[in-house]
Write a structure and sequence with these properties.
Immunoglobulin-like; 5-stranded mixed β-sheet; flat; signal
């Protein structure tokens, strides 16, 4: 046996004594500032916070826990007279501390119910004690009537009153309804504004200044303490336009222009105007009829660029209204033409047009004129500063015209850019049914041709069809219509010219188009496009070639199987068809040459008339 004595025994005792286990520390959370978040209130029971019955509230509390992330707050809510109806909802904190909020709706509780709520923080292990309760009262009834709105300056009587820029006072009145504590108003151009009533049910007055004329509406509702809204009142009134209208006929830089000021406010006796920051100049207003007064003032602008004019109207010495307008003054010359620019119909290629150049600067000596890609040319100005340019556009289309002016001192103006419309005197040629599918054209089948030119002063058109003689047709106001009958398939040609009232003639336009080589079909018994015959009555149908050297035809009746028939020496072939029913019928035919070249197909449509069939007649 081993015996340990003295210091060694003491050390052994220490080593053999078991160390206690480490205990984890979990600090409890804390809770404070329990309230209704939006109202920022924790009210007493004798003065509970009023909340809307149809809306929602946010229950809020400050929660903190140093060692638990996202602690929670439990919110308990119950009617004060029914604690047995207690309900609990939970809100969480983002982080270790901060507000815990929970949206809650009181819609299950009747109007007038007083509710208590309190909060408790929890970290999942430790809970705080419940806070002292806060109180709220459910208000589920909004004010019954919208507020009465009135204005002395802008009555809602359908007539125009006061004027743009003139303030008016507007009274919102809940007529003593003790439930109303505030008003909300807006207009189409004004955001919503809340105005508290000085005492419950008391009226409020606002000042509103219309910024435009015409019909304006204010929309007003009343609020109770729970922010329940009354029905909305729409107050509509009409505002006179009393601002002076400003018009400036800008002649150019350094040239006399005319400033015109006018208003429909016939009580105006004078106008004041100023250019930029210059001093205001007063001028008398003159009546123009019974509904307007105006003033016209000579005004010379000395530099190009933006010019701001401010005008005021006065009744005696009292200013009535004000308007501001900015104009752009340019020294680019004015370019006009009777035909090249709207509202003219357009110039005509190959025919001379004239353009008038008018200065927008003082002391203009020369103009520089450029049309399209043509070289620029200088045109001297006359004594009055204007010039006339004679120009013959070579081709039709839209041509860019650029003009500048040069003064005697060599100052070059801004450029004027305009687009000249140049019309083609040659007629356009349109061919009806050319290229249609299945083909509607062909040898011996009339084709409608239209001739048209937008150029003015047309008397007639002339044309050649293939190698035929030149024929003339009168202009009918919209062009001319002619009919030609092709005598061969393939390429056919129309050549046409326009003849003008002044005796001139346009160049010739040529159009080559293709005529189908589909065979033509005739029938004396069932003519194309008509109603004839009857069920059981046979009809003969003759195929006429458009191709040379036709040897055979394939055909189908009513989209049945293809049948083949040989052509006679003259290229024609005849078949017999006996319809077995009435109504619309289709015969489709293709010709074939000796080398089996197939033509376009031809569709021949006819209608079998309603009537007793041959079999029925025999039975009778």
């Amino acid at each position: 046996m081993i015996v340990i004595k003295g210091a060694a025994a003491a050390l052994a005792l220490v080593l053999l004594t078991a160390a206690p286990a480490h205990a984890a520390v979990n600090n409890p959370p804390t809770i404070s500032d329990v309230k209704l978040y939006d109202q920022n209130a924790c009210a007493a029971q004798d003065a509970p916070t009023v909340i809307p019955g149809a809306g929602s509230v946010y229950l809020s509390a400050e929660v903190s826990d140093p060692d638990t992330y996202s602690p929670q707050a439990r919110f308990a809510i119950w009617p004060v007279d029914h604690p047995d109806q207690r309900q609990v909802v939970v809100g969480s904190v983002s982080g270790y501390s901060g507000p815990a909020r929970k949206e809650w709706r009181p819609s299950d509780f009747a109007h007038g119910t007083v509710l208590a709520f309190q909060a408790q923080a929890t970290d999942g292990t430790n809970d705080t004690a419940w806070s002292a309760p806060c109180f709220m009262r459910v208000d589920a009834v909004a004010p019954a009537r919208g507020p009465v709105v009135s204005s002395a300056e802008y009555p809602a009587d359908g007539s125009f009153h006061n004027g743009v820029g003139k303030p008016g006072t507007f009274r919102f009145d809940a007529e003593g309804d003790p439930d109303v504590v505030a008003y909300v108003w807006r207009s189409s151009s004004t955001p919503q504004t809340v105005l508290p009533a000085p005492t419950p049910g008391a009226p409020v007055t606002i000042e509103y200044t219309p910024t435009r004329d015409g019909i304006i509406s204010l929309y007003v509702t009343a609020l109770d303490a729970a922010k329940n809204r009354s029905p909305e009142t729409s107050y509509t009134f009409a505002v006179r336009e009393i601002r002076p209208a400003i018009a400036l006929d800008v002649a150019g830089v350094g040239l006399p222009s005319t400033l015109r000021l006018s208003t429909g406010a016939t009580t105006v006796t004078s106008f004041g105007y100023r250019v930029g920051d210059a001093a205001e100049i007063r001028v008398p207003a003159v009546a123009e009829g019974t509904n307007q007064v105006a003033a016209e003032v000579p005004l010379t602008v000395t530099a190009k660029g933006a010019v701001t004019l401010t005008a005021r109207s006065f009744e005696g010495d009292a200013p009535l209204s004000q308007a501001t307008k900015t104009f752009t003054v340019s020294d680019a010359p004015r370019v006009t033409s009777d035909d090249l620019f709207w509202p003219g119909t357009g110039g005509v290629a190959g025919r001379e047009s004239t353009l008038t150049l008018t200065p927008r600067n003082a002391d203009v000596a020369t103009y520089r004129f450029t049309a399209g890609s043509e070289p620029a040319r200088d045109v001297p100005a006359g004594p009055d500063g204007t010039a006339v340019v004679r120009w013959t556009p070579p081709t039709p289309g839209t041509v860019a015209v650029t003009v500048t002016s040069l003064t005697t001192a060599g100052t070059v103006s801004d450029e004027t850019h305009v687009n000249a419309t140049v019309l083609d005197p040659r007629p356009t040629i349109g061919v009806d049914n050319a290229g249609s599918w299945p083909p509607a054209d062909g040898i011996g089948r009339p084709l409608a041709i239209t001739l048209h030119s937008p150029a003015p002063g047309i008397a007639s058109y002339s044309y050649h069809f293939n190698d035929g003689p030149e024929l003339t047709v009168p202009f009918d106001g919209g062009g001319a219509s002619i009919t030609v009958i092709p005598d061969h398939a393939g390429a056919n040609t129309i050549r046409a010219r326009t003849h003008f009232s002044d005796g001139t003639t346009s160049a010739e336009r040529t159009l080559t188009f293709q005529v189908s080589d589909a065979p033509t079909i005739t029938s004396p018994d069932y003519p194309e496009g008509t109603e004839a015959g009857a069920p059981g009555i046979a009809g003969t149908f003759t195929f006429h070639p458009a191709q040379p050297d036709v040897q055979s035809y394939t055909y189908s009746y009513e989209y049945g199987d293809d049948q083949t028939v040989d052509a006679a020496p003259d290229g024609t072939a005849t078949i017999v068809i006996t319809p077995d029913s009435e109504g619309w019928k289709t015969l489709r035919v293709t010709s074939h040459t000796a080398d089996d070249t197939a033509s376009d197909p031809r569709e021949y449509n006819f209608t079998v008339a309603t009537g007793a069939s041959i079999t029925d007649k025999a039975r009778q």
